[in-house]
Amino acid sequence: MGRAPCCSKVGMKKGPWSIEEDMLLTNYIHLHGEGLLRCGKSCRLRWVNYLRPGIKRGNFSPDEDDLIIRLYSLLGGRWSLIAGRLSGRTDNEIKNHWHTNLSKKLKALGIEPKSKKSTPKRTTKKKCRQNKEEKRRRQGKKARKTDNLLQQEVEKRESRMEKDEVVGKFQVHIPKPIRLIPHGYSYSSSSKSDFQDKIGENDEICKKFQLFDELLNGCDNNISNECLEENMLKEVYKEYFQLISEI
DNA sequence: AAAAGCGGCAACCGCAATGGA
DNA sequence: GTCCATTGCGGTTGCCGCTTT
After folding, report:
1. Same domain, A240 and A136
2. Same domain, A108 and A214
3. Nearest to A217 by CA among A172, A247, A173, A187
4. Which of A3, A85, A236, A243 has the fewest CB atoms below 10 angstroms from its CB?
5. How far apart (Å, rounded) are the C-alpha atoms in residues A192 and A185?
6. What pLDDT, in 10s, does the model give residues A21-67?
7. Same domain as A222, residue A132
8. CA at A100, C1' at C21: how many angstroms apart?
9. Nucleotide in closest CA–C1' contact with A45
10. CB-to-strand C contacts below 7 angstroms
11. CA of A6 vs C1' of B20, distance in Å?
């Protein structure tokens, strides 16, 4: 994991400020004054969550709800990632919506997403420093290699990759699935109706919810195959792998 | 009409991560 | 190699408006 610096965004400048930039900023402050007694962090938050163009306000559509639920089941509380999949919605807004509406709604239906904290554990400061050093050491070693050695290394890795289907040194860690359907509500013919009584037949979100849960956790109870429509499966898988590639 | 309770949402806080000096 | 300012993220808090008593 890691965080791309803000300046890595397309079109953003980084590095030392030029005299022209300093003058522009000074002129701007002279014109408008220092004005706000706000720290940069607060300003940024206001911009990101409220003022930025393209922010969608208002109620979440059922489709958005559905997507949030599915993404939560995949990623846990990684709201920024989830927000990345919903255009115009901020991570904060989605997080609030989840805590105030969706989680309660699901609980009311007897569906409790087991929050096994799929959110990766934060590394300690010490560990963070160690990782940093490790990374630099690796980079240093790399730099010392001659072109020939590098070429050999690359070839070795490529052959290993073919064998193991591992992309370089980076392994994709698929998030641990979370069981969303409460225990006791399996899909066996007898309990299926029980489950449907609980959630209601026409609730689109819950149907998709079931489907996704089945997909994530495996079909352990002879799920009715007709509900696993091929197109939907493809769509969900596509989305799933796209998500993984973004992590 | 006033107080208490509740829910939604914006903002804050702490910390990890980054990059430059 | 270390320090420090800054950014980004997720958890938490507190304000405000609405509902209930």
Report:
1. no
2. yes
3. A187
4. A3
5. 7
6. 556 666 666 666 666 677 778 888 888 888 877 888 788 888 888 88
7. no
8. 24
9. B11
10. A 3-6, 9, 40-41, 44, 77-81, 91-92, 95-96, 99, 117, 119, 133, 136
11. 14
How far: A93 CA to B10 C1' (Å)?
A: 9
A91 in a structural domain: yes
- Residue A247: exposed, middle, or buried by beta-carbon count in 10 A (0-12, 13-18, 19+)? middle
In the block, tokens 């701007």 appear at A28
pLDDT of residue A218: 40
H or E element at residue A93: helix A91-97
Stated in angstroms, how far is A133 CA from C1 C1'? 10
Task: Look at A175 and A78; give whichever has higher pLDDT.
Answer: A78
Both A185 and A239 in a single domain?
yes
Domain count, chain A: 2
Domain membership of residue A139 as a residue range: 125-164
Least Cα distance to A105 among A68, A56, A57, A71 occurs for A68
